Amino acid sequence: MLDLAELRNPTCGFGQIVTNYAKIYSEMQDPDIQFHFLLPRGFVRDFGPNVQVTNRLGDKAHLGLPDAFLWHTTNQHQLRMPRGKSEKFVLTIHDLNYNSEKGWLSRMKHHYRIQKAIKRADAVTCISGFVAKQIEEEFDMHGKHVQVIYNGVEDISGQQEAKPDFATGRPFFFTIGQIRKKKNFHLLVDMMRHFPDYDLYVCGDDHFDYAREMKKHIAKLPAHNAYLCGKVSQAEKVWLYSHCEAFVFASQGEGFGLPVIEAMQFGKPVFSSNCTCLPEICGDAAYVWSDLDPDHMAQQLQEQLPRMQQDPTYADRVRAHAAQFTYDKHIAQYMELYRRLVK
What is the mean pLDDT of each run of 10 residues along the chain (343 residues)? Predict the structure, then answer.
């Protein structure tokens, strides 16, 4: 049983991951395994003859579920939902960002739920060594080891492109993610006063309060070369990766940092913050800012970008780095874990 509740949010990182899970597992031909997907309430999709499906019934997710040899909760946000009857339980934790995003009471509630799930789990996985270290320092693992299974990243570099209507025709930097405070998009906007001949496109879900603050902040700036563009289609995202001068990412709250790997698939220069897992995921294939001060970030971008662009080996090196994070490798590790637990 795979909990795929995030299929309702296909543009966010969790949604992209479970969308790929649904595609890959539904096409898997294995006579020893029957997959069952738990879907969002009201979500309708045919996954073919190899998969059974059940929709959540509000908060009573356990109603109508068959018994399962193994239940996989694919992220830490679904722990409030009952899990039905299962002999084995796999818990995947993507991040502990609630520690920096929530108030004291909310942090305690999140901690309690995750600790309870860890105690019950037969296996705990996470998506980076950084997160594994956080988990083992913060929780009583009851003698269990956190297994790092890096995210798979779908190779989108050959997909169809569509130029967005907001593209001005000037050279531009690109960044993407939910428009939330932890992403530090305001630092990138402030950095752009040093680049009057370039534009910055900030794309992603912008229904958050921080997005409204960003719009006011952008409107006050004299440069007028930063744009908050909202959600973009997949084809538009591919065009933006393909045509940007560099991908810039100043986030301080990532469990993996999927966009930096997507940008590398296009051989693009990547500039990343030095926070959380990002130095681990970027390796030596990106320039990692040592200081998230907009003036310092601009100086380093001005110095390093020409070197990256003039290096004839750079694009191939970053593409090779991105190619390590495949869904084939990711799913193979989970299949090995599933088989070990139910054997």
Answer: 88 86 93 89 89 76 72 83 72 89 88 94 95 96 96 95 96 96 96 96 94 92 91 96 98 93 98 96 96 97 97 96 96 96 87
- CA dihedral sign, ordered 265, 202, 255, 11: negative
Sheet order of strands, 123-126 included: 51-55, 35-39, 2-3, 68-73, 86-93, 123-126, 146-148
The CATH code belonging to domain 2-152+326-342 is: 3.40.50.2000
Backbone phi and psi for residue 40, each to the nearest 5 degrees, phi listed first = -60, 155
311-335 per-position pLDDT tens digit: 999 999 999 999 999 999 999 999 9
Of the options 2.40.290.10, 3.40.640.10, 3.40.50.300, 3.40.50.2000, the CATH number for the domain spanning 172-322: 3.40.50.2000
Query: Fold identical between 2-152+326-342 and 172-322?
Result: yes
Quick check: helix, strand or coil at residue 124?
strand
pTM for the full predicted model: 0.90
Distance set, CA 201 to CA 22, 224, 226, 277 (Å): 31, 12, 6, 24
Beta partners for residue 151, in sequence order: none
276: left (phi over 0), alpha (psi -120 to 50) or beta: left
Tokens at 306, concatenated? 């020409």
- Between CA 333 and CA 312 the distance in angstroms is 35
Is-contact 39 57, C-beta < 8 A? Answer: no
Q: Parse the chain into domains and list their residue ranges.
A: 2-152+326-342, 172-322
Q: Other CB atoms closer than 10 Å to residue 333's CB: what's the count?
A: 16
Q: How far apart are CA 185 and CA 194, in angstroms?
A: 16
Alpha-carbon separation of residue 261 from 149, 164, 328 (angstroms) = 16, 22, 16
Phi first, then psi, for residue 262 (nearest 5°) are -60, -45
